[in-house]
Design brief:
Order of helices and strands: EEHHEEEEEHEEHHHEHEEEEEEEEHEE
Mean pLDDT: 76
Low-confidence stretches: 1-25, 60-114
Largest sheet: 8 strands, antiparallel
Structural class: alpha+beta
Number of helices: 8
Distance between the termini: 43 Å
Strand content: 25-35%
Shape: globular
Oligomer: single chain
Length: 349
């Protein structure tokens, strides 16, 4: 049975630093870093949605890094009840992170549940995934990728809305199983709680060895994700994501004309994970093809979908969700899936 949604109570982290520099240099905000490093690459909607308003170029926010470390607070001035505060470095050299809290703060309740991602190909599908995971509908065979083909699909909107934090902050916060007790303490998360298990699951998936023929990386900031993709794909890259005109329930969609394959057979797919701040599980393979697929729902809803096809699945877990849903065996035919709205595909231009 599908686990009931739970509240992962967290306010999006705002970066609001002291005006004076702390003995070192100002760090570019995630948005400015993108525009500086990728000046000719449009930012997909999923990325703009995950950049907190206080970290946008218009806010002219700078992160100050110096001997005292990095200082991050919520909002302007003194935080109100229910807020989030992050302190990295300082005189004590430690890290303190507060999530949620008491009071009447307007924190967003984020609903996620514990479980392995169907986009991690090392894991066997659970009974819950097979019968109740909405991502089941996203898998299909490459031979079915043609105009006029009808499929029952559902593009859920992940309500886990944790935003990016600057790389200089992310690098100061532990992210490993070895330091998991410290992480829970810093985020004021009770050991053994569902929140704790969600965070543990994300870290463990990131620490799993990569499968043969694949390179994997968990990006804990937008800046690190950009750098990883430039290393794997070269300097000229583009990022694409699925965009849905409006939210609907599962319904029949028809593939429309003008399906477009991206350049080459190399891509990096980055899947958003459930965590206290935005973390993306990225994996790159030279046996991956990406497509832009226009869809039209039975109710008229338009979707600019991104589909990824894996031409070599021989190293996947034989009991992976895709094989059980599509009734095929590893390494026999290309296996494809549409991407949820909060995932990103990076391809060479």
């Amino acid at each position: 049975m599908l686990m009931a949604p739970m509240g992962f109570r967290i306010l999006a982290i705002l970066v609001s630093l002291a005006v004076a520099l702390v003995a070192s240099h100002a760090v570019l905000s995630p948005e400015v870093y993108w525009k500086t490093v990728l000046p000719n690459t449009p930012m997909p909607k999923v990325v703009t949605d995950l950049i907190h308003p206080e970290l946008t170029e218009e806010k002219s926010t700078s992160v100050n890094v110096g001997k005292g470390g990095v200082n991050v607070n919520t909002g302007k001035g003194k935080p109100r009840g229910g807020g989030t505060s992050v302190n990295v470095g300082g005189k004590g050299g430690g890290v303190s992170v507060g999530v949620g809290g008491k009071g009447k703060g307007k924190g967003k309740s984020v609903h996620v549940s514990v479980g392995k991602s169907p986009f991690n190909y090392e894991y066997a599908a659970t009974e819950t995934q097979l019968h109740e995971d909405p991502n089941v509908a996203l898998f299909f065979l490459e031979k079915d990728l043609y105009p006029g083909k009808a499929m029952k699909l559902y593009f859920p909107q992940n309500r886990e809305t944790a935003t990016f934090i600057p790389r200089q902050v992310a690098e100061k916060i532990p992210f490993s199983s070895e330091k998991f007790p410290i992480i829970l303490e810093q985020f004021s998360v009770k050991p053994g709680s569902e929140e704790a298990e969600i965070m543990r699951n994300t870290i463990q998936e990131c620490e799993q060895p990569q499968i043969q023929g694949e390179d994997k990386y968990c990006a804990t900031s937008l800046e690190s994700m950009i750098d990883y993709n430039k290393i794997r794909l070269g300097r000229n890259v583009q990022a694409i994501s699925t965009e849905v005109e409006k939210q609907t329930q599962m319904q029949e969609y028809t593939i429309e004309a003008d399906v477009k394959k991206t350049e080459g057979d190399k891509a990096v797919v980055c899947h958003k994970q459930n965590y206290a701040y935005a973390v993306f599980y990225c994996h790159e393979s030279e046996t991956t093809r990406a497509y832009m697929v226009p869809l039209k729902g039975a109710d008229g809803t338009k979707v600019k979908a991104v589909a990824v096809c894996h031409t070599d699945t021989s190293k996947w877990n034989p009991k992976h969700l895709a094989f059980q849903v599509l009734k095929v065996k590893p390494g026999t035919v290309p296996v494809c899936h549409f991407l949820p709205q909060d995932h990103i595909v990076w391809v060479p231009k």
